[in-house]
Amino acid sequence: MTGFNQVFLDKITQCLCPPGNGVFTVNTAKERKEQLHKALYGFTTDIDDLWQRALTNYNGEDKAVLLGVASDCGGGILRGANWGPLFLRSTLLEQHNELKYFDMGDIRVIPHLLHDKYLNDATISNCRKALYGNEQSDLPISPLSITEDVLHDFYAQNTDKGIFAIGGDHSVSYPLTKAYLQAKKAQGKRCAIIHFDAHTDLLIERLGIDLCFGSWCTHILDDLHAPHHLIQVGIRSSGKPKSHWENTFGVKQHWANEVRELGIDRVINNIKAQLANENIDELYVSFDIDALDAEFASATGTPEDDGLTPEEAMKILTSLSKLYPITGGDMMEIAPFTDSSGKGAVSAEKTLKVGAEISAFLIEQINQM
After folding, report:
1. What are the pLDDT digits (tens) for 203-216?
2. Domain holding 89: CATH number?
3. Cα–Cα dist 368/182, whole Å
4. 105, 126, 211, 359: most buried, per Cβ within 10 A?
5. In 3D, which of 321, 312, 318, 200 has the Cα closest to residue 263?
6. CA 68 → CA 228, 246, 308, distances in Å?
7. Per-residue pLDDT tens for 228-268?
8. How many domains does the chain fold into?
9. pLDDT for res 1
10. What range does the domain containing 302 cover?
C-alpha cells in the first residue's frame, strides 16, 4: 500500500488547505473548525503543519479519500452550501466515529470564482498571486478548475483509491465526475452515474452560464460510454415532463412519483434492468440532499416536498452495491445555515444526520475497493 508521491504532494499543498478551512473566515464557525481540527489532529493550532504531516504520512491503507469543495458560487437560489464540508465532516466524526477514510483536505476556494474559463488574464494573474504567491504560476485558481486538475493527477497515480467529496453546490460534481469518468475510461472501465436529485440538472446553460448547479449533468454526458449510463432518481421539480429529458439527452430517470406509485422495490428492479446488459464495472453516486423530501432535508438551497425518504434512498444504494462496486461519490447542497422549515438548528441537525448516514454508507463502499 502506498500513499501520495512527492509531485502530487507538492500540488495539493498549494491547491488544498486543511479540512474545514475551505471557507476563508476568521470568526464565523471558528469553534466548529477548532472542534474538527481537534478531532482530526488532536490540536487546534499549527493546523497547516499538522495537515501537511498527515498528507506525507498517509500510507494508502484507507482507500476512501475525503475531499471538501466549499464552493456555492455555482448555485443560484439560497446560498450557504459552502459550509457543507465543515459541518458534515463534524457530523461524520460525531455519529460515525468508526468510519475509516483519509481526509485530504479542502480545495482552496476564492468564493466569487467558479471556473477559470470565465476569467480574463488579469484576474487569473491577480488570483494566482493571492492563492500561490506567484502570478506566474500555471496552477488553476477557480474551485471547479482546481478540483478537476487535482483529481486528474489523483486518479492517474492512485488507481486503487476513490474520492468521496463533500460540497458545495451541485456544480462541484462537474469536475468530480468528469475526472472520475475520464480516468475510468483510460483504465478500460465502464461506469454509470447514479444521480439522486429533485431536479434534472440538465440545462444547457442557466442565465448564460453553462457550468452551474442546474446544468452540470449535461456537460459530462460525453464522458460516459453512453448517455443512458446517467440514471437519475427522485426527480420531481421540473418545468418539462420526463419524456423531454430522456428523449433529448438519452438519460434514464426515475421520478419521485414513480416510487409512490410503483413502490421502491419495483423502481429498484427497473434500475437493475437498465444496467443489466450494459457491462457496467463500477458506479459513482452523486447525491443532492434535496432528493430527499423536505421533511428530512430542509437545510438546503432548494428543498422540495414529495421526495424520497432516507430509507428509500438507502434501499436503492444497498441493492445496487450488491451488484456493482461503488468507487466514487459525493454529497451536495447541504446548507446548514439555511432553513425553510422554521425550525432553525433542528432543521440543520436533521439534514446533517441523514446526509451523514448516506455519506457514511458511500464511504464504506469506496473503502472496499
Report:
1. 999 999 899 999 99
2. 3.40.800.10
3. 21
4. 359
5. 312
6. 28, 31, 25
7. 999 999 999 999 999 999 999 999 999 999 999 999 999 99
8. 1
9. 66
10. 6-366
